[in-house]
Design goal:
Helix 1 (25-34) links the parallel strand 1 (2-3) and strand 2. 46% of the residues are buried. Strands 2-1-3-10-9-4-7-8 form an eight-stranded parallel beta sheet, sandwiched between helices. The protein contains twelve helices and ten strands. The protein has helices at residues 25-34, 45-51, 61-67, 70-78, 80-90, 115-139, 177-187, 205-216, 243-248, 273-287, 320-336, 354-365, and strands at 2-3, 42-43, 153-156, 194-198, 221-222, 225-226, 228-235, 261-265, 295-299, 341-344.
Length: 366
C-alpha cells in the first residue's frame, strides 16, 4: 500500500530556504498512478495510525532518545534558538564566516523553527510504513476496492533521512528516521533482524554511525549476531565522501564509519551498478548467516537519476530504465523471500524527481 499525507509536502522557500526540493513531487507521482488505475491503496498518516490503534502518528521524545543523543534531542525541543541553529547547520544554510548560503530569511513566510513540526511528522511516517508492511494488510483488508494487492509491502512517499547522526543533523536530515523506525520496531518486539538496503546516491553515513553506536552499547545484538545489518550502494567520491568532508571528519564518526556492506560506484560506472547491487544483496544474505529478517527497510532514493537537480549527485547518472531495473531487482529480492518491506522515497531533487518512483509503482500496480 501507499502511505502519503499532504501535510508532508514542504515548500522550502516558505522558510527562505533555496534548495531544489520540489513540493509537488509526491503529487505528481499520485496523479501519474491515478491516470493508470482509478483506486489506489492509499492511507494518510492519521488513517494509518488510527487503524494501527495508535493515539498519535508522531514518534515520542523517548523514541528519539532511543537513537539520538539526549542532549541533542533537548536542543530540538527545549530551546527555539538552539533548534534554529541545528536547522541552519543541517540544511547547510550558513557558512563558516557567518554569511548565509541558499538562505534568504527576509523572504520567508514561516519561521524556521516551524519546520521541526513537519520534520517530526515526516520522520514518524517511516515507522508507520514499517508497521503497515508488517501487519497493515491484515488490518486494512477490505478497506480498498479489490482488497489490498500489496500485502507486506508499503511505499511511503516520504522519509529516508539517512544522514542524521547521533548528536547532530547533516545533509538536509535533522533526524534519522531509518534507524528510529528500525529501533522502535525492535523495541516493541515486532521484528528481530532488520535489513536496511540503502540505494540513495549518497552514502547512508548517519545510519552507519547510529548502527555502530548502538552496537557499541550492546543494544542491537542477540548473542554475537547483529540485529540491524545495513547495505549502502552510493557514489564513491561524492558528498559525504568528498575530500573536503573526509578531511574534516572525526575518526569513528560519520562519514568514516563503514556500513556492513558498502558498494561505492565511481563516476561513469553506471553499467556496473545493477550487477554490483545484486552481488551486494547476495552478500547481505551471507552476512546474515542464514537468518531471515523480520523486516526490510529500503531507502529508495532516486537522486541517482540522470535528470536529478542536485549538483552533488552528478557523479552517478542512471537512466530511467536503469532506475526501474534497480527497483525491480530489489522488489523481486524481497518478494521471492517472503520478506515484509517498507520503502522510503528518500532523495530526489528538481522537477523530474518524481519520474523513477512513479515508474516503479506503476510496475507494481501491474
Amino acid at each position: 500500500m501507499l502511505l502519503y499525507d499532504k501535510n508532508l509536502e514542504r515548500n522550502m522557500s516558505d522558510y527562505g530556504i533555496r534548495i531544489p526540493m520540489s513540493p509537488s513531487r509526491s503529487g505528481k507521482i499520485l496523479r501519474f498512478l491515478e491516470e493508470r488505475r482509478g483506486a489506489l491503496p492509499l492511507l494518510t498518516l492519521g488513517e494509518a495510525a488510527g487503524g494501527l490503534g495508535l493515539d498519535s502518528p508522531l514518534l515520542s521524545r523517548e523514541d528519539l532518545e532511543r537513537v539520538h543523543q539526549r542532549e541533542f534531542v533537548a536542543r530540538l525541543y527545549d530551546d527555539p534558538r538552539n533548534l534554529e541553529k541545528e536547522i541552519l547547520k543541517t540544511y547547510e544554510l550558513i557558512r563558516a564566516d557567518g554569511t548565509y548560503n541558499r538562505y534568504e530569511p527576509d523572504k520567508a513566510v514561516k519561521a524556521l523553527g516551524e519546520l521541526f513540526k513537519t520534520i517530526l511528522y515526516r520522520v514518524s511516517g517511516s515507522y508507520l510504513a514499517c508497521r503497515l508492511a508488517l501487519d497493515g494488510g491484515e488490518i486494512f483488508r477490505g478497506k480498498f476496492p479489490g482488497g489490498i494487492p500489496w500485502e507486506h509491502f508499503c511505499f511511503y512517499l516520504g522519509g529516508g533521512q539517512h544522514h542524521g547522526r547521533y548528536d547532530t543533523g547533516s545533509g538536509f536530515c535533522l533526524l534519522n528516521d531509518v534507524i528510529l523506525a528500525a529501533r522502535k520496531i525492535q523495541a516493541e518486539g515486532r521484528a528481530g533482524l532488520i535489513w536496511i538496503i540503502d540505494v540513495d546516491a549518497h552514502k547512508g553515513d548517519g545510519s552507519a554511525e547510529l548502527v555502530k553506536f548502538s552496537r557499541d552499547r550492546g543494544e542491537t545484538f542477540v548473542g554475537k549476531d547483529p540485529e540491524i545489518i545495513a547495505l549502502s550502494i552510493h557514489m564513491a567520491s561524492g558528498w559525504p565522501l568528498d575530500s573536503e568532508s573526509i578531511a574534516k571528519a572525526e575518526q569513528g564518526r560519520a562519514p568514516l564509519v563503514e556500513s556492513d556492506i558498502d558498494i561505492p560506484i565511481a563516476e561513469h560506472e553506471e553499467a556496473l551498478y545493477i550487477p554490483r547491487l545484486i552481488e551486494g544483496l547476495e552478500a547481505l544474505e551471507k552476512r546474515s548467516g542464514g537468518r531471515k529478517p523480520g523486516l526490510v527497510i529500503v531507502v529508495d532514493g532516486v537522486d541517482v537519476y540522470e535528470k536529478d537537480g542536485l549538483a552533488s549527485t552528478s557523479l552517478i547518472a542512471l537512466s530511467k530504465e536503469q532506475c526501474l531495473e534497480r527497483d525491480r531487482q530489489l522488489f523481486s529480492f524481497v518478494r521471492d523471500r517472503g520478506l515484509p518491506s517498507a520503502w522510503l522515497m528518500a532523495g530526489g531533487y528538481g522537477e523530474d524527481a518524481w519520474e523513477p518512483t512513479a515508474n516503479f509503482l506503476s510496475f507494481i500496480l501491474k
